[in-house]
Amino acid sequence: MMYAFTDEQEELRVLVREFVARVSPESEVRRLMDTQHGYDTSVWHQLGLELGIVGLAIPEEYGGLGQGFAAVGVVLEEAGAGLLCAPYFSSVVLAGELLVACDDTAAKQDYLPRIATGELRGTLAIAEDNGCADLSDIETSARRVDGQWRLEGHKSYVIDGATVQLILVAARTESGTSLFAVESAAAGLHVEALSTLDLTRKQARLQFESVPARLIGDEGAAEPALRRILDLAALGLAAEQAGAAARTLEMAVEYAKVRFQYGRAIGSFQAIKHKCADMLLEVECARSAAYHGLWATDDDSADFALAASIAKSRCSEAFTHCAYENIQIHGGIGFTWEHPAHLYLRRAKSTALLFGDAAYHRERVASLIGA
Fold it and tell me: 255 pairs with which residues across the strands?
C-alpha cells in the first residue's frame, strides 16, 4: 500500500518547516530548556491563532479545521526535526484528540474551541509511578462526595503537566475506567516538575488529594477512547521520531563533508560512508512506518492499532540508532554539552520509552497478528 501526501499537506510541511527553522534555532531551544514553562507563549500564540496549526484535526463544528490526523503527523515530523519546544503534542494529540474521541458533546463544546485556538492547553495523565501507560495499571480512583466527583491518587510522567490548564485524568470508579477533567488550579492538586533526560519536553508528577473533577462521558466507559488515544500518541511520537532521525542524518552528512583528516574529508572514508548509508536506511524505514500509520488513521483502517505499534517500535529504534551514529561521526565534539547532537540523543532515549518502548510494541504486534 502506498501513501501519498496531498498538495495541501505538502504545503503545510513547507510552512511548518520554515516556521520551526525561524522560531526554534538551537540557541532558542537551549534558552527554553532552562525556563520553567519550557516554551515561548508568543510562538504558541502564532501556532494557534495566526497559523491555525493547533486546531488542524479538530472538527470544524468545534472551531478546528477538520484536516485529520495525517496533517498533525506532518507538523509533528517537522517539530521533531527542530526540537520545537511547545505543548503541541500534549494539547493537540493527547487532550484534543481524546476529547474528540469521547462521547460527550457538552465537554467538546466547552473545551475544543479553546484548544483549537491555543487559548486552552491540555494534557493526559494516565501513567503512574511505573511509567506504564497500560490501562490495567491504573490505580488512581474517583468517587462521589456530596454529588461531586473527587480524585485520589497520583500520576507520573505527565507531559507538560506543570504548565497546562486542563488535565484529563484516567481513573477507576466502581463502574470501571473513567475519564475526568481537572483544572490546574483545583484544590488538592499538587504538581511536582520532574527532572528528566530530555530537557526539551517538560514532565510532571501529579498528586490528587480529594481533587474536584468533571466526569467526561459515561462512568466506566472511557476505555475505547483511551485505547485509541494511546495508539494516536504512539503514532504521533513515531512521526516526531522520523523527523528527528532525518535531521540527525543531515547533521552527520554535513559534518562528514567539512571535517578533514589526513588531508581528506572524513565522508570519503568507507567506514563513515557505511554509517551514513545505514542511517539513511533507518530514516526511510521510519518514514514508511510512520506514514503508513497516518494513512491508517485517516482512513479509519481496522489495522490502525497494528500500524501504530509497528510505527512506534520501528521509529524508536531508528531514531536511537541515528542519534548514536550522529555522535560517533562527530567524534569528540559530539559528546560535548555545546553540540546539539546530544540533545537529539536525549530526545531519542526519552521518546523511545514514552507510551511503550520498542519491545512492548513488538510484543503487541505479535499479539495482534496472532503470532
Answer: none
- pLDDT tens-digit readout, 155-207: 999 999 999 999 999 999 999 999 999 999 999 999 999 999 999 999 999 99
Packing angle of the helix pair 223-258, 270-298 (nearest 10 deg): 150
Contact call for residues 97 and 111 (beta carbons, < 8 A): no
Chain mean position to CA 244: 12
Please state whether beta strands 260-261 and 264-265 pair in parallel, antiparallel, or not at all (unpaired). Answer: antiparallel
DSSP, residue by residue, 43-85: HHHIIIIIT--TTSSS-GGGTS----HHHHHHHHHHHHHTT--
Look at the alpha carbons of 284, 290, 296, 298 in this order and tell me if their dihedral is positive or negative: negative
Q: Look up residue 311 and give its three cell numbers.
A: 510505527
pLDDT tier, 371 (very low <50, low <70, confident <90, very high otherwise): low
Q: Burial-class residue 147 by CB neighbours within 10 Å (0-12, 13-18, 19+).
A: exposed
Which tens digits make up the pLDDT trace of 114-127? 999 999 999 999 99
User: Where do the domains of the chain lie, and which CATH numbers do they carry?
Assistant: 7-120 (1.10.540.10), 123-220 (2.40.110.10), 224-368 (1.20.140.10)
Residue 350 three-state SS: helix
Question: Rounded distance, CA 370 to CA 106, Å?
Answer: 39
Q: What cell was used for 111?
A: 473545551
| Dihedral (Cα; 103, 104, 108, 109), 10-degree rounding | 140
Exposed e or buried b for every residue in 202-219, given b needs 16+ CB within 10 A?
bbbbbebeebbbbbbbeb
Burial class of residue 332 in the structure, from the number of CB atoms within 10 Å of its CB (0-12 exposed, 13-18 middle, 19+ buried)? exposed
Cβ neighbours of residue 355 closer than 8 Å, sequence gap 6 or more? 133, 230, 233, 234, 237, 312
Q: How far is residue 250's CA from residue 265's CA, in Å, rounded to a whole number?
A: 16
* Averaged confidence pLDDT in the chain: 95
When pLDDT is cut at 50, 70 and 90, the band that residue 333 belongs to is: confident
